[in-house]
């Protein structure tokens, strides 16, 4: 571990230990729980319907196919890249990207639980990768009976594969893949969006940029909602960004879990 990651690494361990009492509490407290606690309860209880599980099996079948793929695509990395894959190469294997950069099955079920609990009408994802987490979010929206997801990806090769995967799962009417740098696409997209209820920020991995995305998204959470930030212990800069975000006066509740930072937002002033 590099010196720049020693502090966040220790903090990851401490936050995991500190999260245990709250996680345990959600198993026994049923009434009057906030959105974060309710989502944790669903995740740990695993109380998914047969239809939920059928969709999950289909998405894991797609993951298996990606891991077995021998295809390569051009590397087009606009953020800090991968901490595992060689960012200096010109090509990347689809199998390697899936194994090292797609969210795990367990983490995807965690996101699925938030969508099932929150029931957002408009969700955003920054960092589509190959479309696994987007598919889980989209599938949960389908099970809810309403809602849509816009997912952003900077790599043209990854975005194309993600769109194909989402279409193969029958989710393309719910999930829209937007290819291009976040800096170029997100602000333009948000101009025509009235309200957002859920966002999953899993790309760029730069502290200042992460705070910037939070500030850009925040006014759109007019009714409040949830933002999940991935890899908050990626670097000292990312952890500082997370600390800044969770101290915001617009945050009603925050929690750290498995390298992710979750904030529940207060409704935004409609006149802002």
Task: Please describe what this structure looks like.
With 272 residues, this protein is an alpha/beta fold. The chain has helices at 3-26, 35-45, 50-67, 94-101, 105-118, 132-144, 156-168, 182-190, 207-217, 236-246; strands spanning 72-74, 91-93, 122-126, 148-153, 175-179, 198-201, 225-229, 251-257, 260-265. The protein has a 7-stranded mixed β-sheet with strand order 5-4-3-6-7-9-8, sandwiched between helices. It has a two-stranded antiparallel ribbon with strand order 1-2. Strand 6 (198-201), helix 9 and strand 7 (225-229) form a beta-alpha-beta unit.
Summarize the structure.
The chain is of the alpha/beta class.
Q: Regions with pLDDT < 50 over 5+ consecutive residues?
A: 1-6, 80-85
By DSSP (H or I, 4+ residues per run), the number of helices equals: 10
Q: Name the structural class.
A: alpha/beta
Shape from CA axes? globular
- CA-based gyration radius: 18 Å
- Total strand segments: 9
Q: Report the β-strand fraction as a percent range.
A: 15-25%
What strand line-up does the widest sheet have?
5-4-3-6-7-9-8
Major sheet characteristics: 7 strands, mixed
* SSE run: HHHEEHHEHEHEHEHEHEE
Q: Mean of residue pLDDT?
A: 88
Helix content: 40-55%
Alpha-carbon distance between the termini? Answer: 43 Å
Q: What are the defining features of this structure?
A:
globular, two-stranded antiparallel ribbon, seven-stranded mixed sheet, 9 strands, 272 residues, alpha/beta, disordered N terminus, 10 helices
List the helices and strands and how they pair.
Blueprint: H1 3-26, H2 35-45, H3 50-67, E1 72-74, E2 91-93, H4 94-101, H5 105-118, E3 122-126, H6 132-144, E4 148-153, H7 156-168, E5 175-179, H8 182-190, E6 198-201, H9 207-217, E7 225-229, H10 236-246, E8 251-257, E9 260-265
Parallel strand pairs: 3-4, 3-6, 4-5, 6-7
Antiparallel strand pairs: 1-2, 7-9, 8-9
Helix pairs in contact: 2-5, 3-6, 5-6, 9-10
